[in-house]
Amino acid sequence: MPTFSAPDGTLLAYRVTGADGDPVVCVPGGPADSAYLGDLGGLSAHHRLIVPDLRGTGRSAAPADPASYRCDRLVEDFEALRVHLGLPRIDLLAHSAGTNIAVQYAARYPERVGRLALIGPSSRAVGLEITGETRRACALLRQDEPWFPTAFAALVALTEGRGGDAEAIAPFFWGRWDAVARERHAAARPGNAEAVARFGAEGAFDPEATRAVLAGFDHSVLLLTGEFDLNSPPPMAGEYAGLFPDATFAVQPGAGHYPWIDDADRFVAAVRAFLTSPSHRTRR
Questions:
Q1: Cα 26–chain centre separation
Q2: What is the DSSP string of 92-114?
Q3: Total tally of structural domains belonging to the chain
Q4: Does an H or E element contain 179, and which?
């Protein structure tokens, strides 16, 4: 597995999937081992995916300074990766919490971004609120499923601030809550509790400043979320898309928070169409 050095000397690992096609740097969520992304449903058949393990996850070393797990500080790891790869610009595809890193990278280094694809986006970097009512409305789409009563009761308790079992709502994150989903759900769980705890520490996000930069972001952007994605409900993702001057917003039918698993063909078709379309700069 190839490695590169972060600005603070932390040795970070990445994998390359797919030999042909334009490179796409993939930003995992979590922070979790990037292995859960796999080959993004077969996207690697069309593009060379460069998938780093965030510091302290997978095969990447833990930093000497735990404060460097903070989201805004992780941005510089991706700039170091771009330099290591010798690319003047990078196309970024980010998932879940990783979209916070990608968006802050795009705000800090807009001239070094080609295209930006945000999958199941987290809204923390731009300060969009997801209300309990919005999450419950999304969940109610699944009310005919056998696991729904227990999962929905847990969700109501959580969104009303009464505690509850967070694991009980796991089925809401998948288009199909079957044996495959259960196995994948376990694999996608973060293993470094300190990295998770420090990711959103004080100072990690400056939503007002980030949104101001994104309002003039002169690049092609895709926001794709699943119809059933409780983490990134379509109303929030659509509002997020509106923060960019020229964004494509897509809702994948029947999908949850991992759309490349729920319907790989549909996911790959949507992302490939975006990555191969004329860029905003080209269209101008």
A1: 9
A2: EEEETTHHHHHHHHHHH-GGGEE
A3: 1
A4: helix 179-188
- The CB density around residue 276, as the number of other CB atoms within 10 Å, is 12
Residues 6+ positions from 21 with CB-CB distance below 8 Å: 46, 47, 48
Rg (CA), the chain: 18
- Report yes or no: 62 and 56 within 8 Å, Cβ to Cβ: yes
Q: 221: part of which helix (H) or strand (E)?
A: strand 220-226
The secondary element (H helix, E strand) that includes residue 154 is helix 148-159
Residue 205 inside a domain? The answer is yes
The pLDDT assigned to 279 comes to 64
CA distances from 96 to 11, 65, 161, 192 (A): 24, 24, 23, 17
Domain that holds residue 222: 3-127+192-283
- Sign of the CA dihedral running 227, 229, 234, 238: negative
pTM, two decimals, is 0.95
* Per-residue pLDDT tens over the stretch 237-257: 999 999 999 899 999 999 999
The CATH number covering residue 20 comes to 3.40.50.1820
Instruction: Answer yes or no: is 137 within a domain.
Output: no
CA separation for the pair 202, 178 (Å, rounded): 38
Q: SS3 of 88, please?
A: coil
Tokens of 231: 């983490």
- Side chain identity at 212, as an amino acid letter? A
Amino acid at site 265: D
Q: Residue 254 has which token pair?
A: 């029947």
In a domain, 165, yes or no: no
Query: CB-hemisphere CA count at 13 Å for 260?
Result: 19
**Three-class DSSP category at 196:** helix
Per-residue pLDDT at 284: 37
| Residue 163 located in a structural domain | no
pLDDT at 22: 82
Q: Which residues of the chain have pLDDT under 70?
A: 279-284
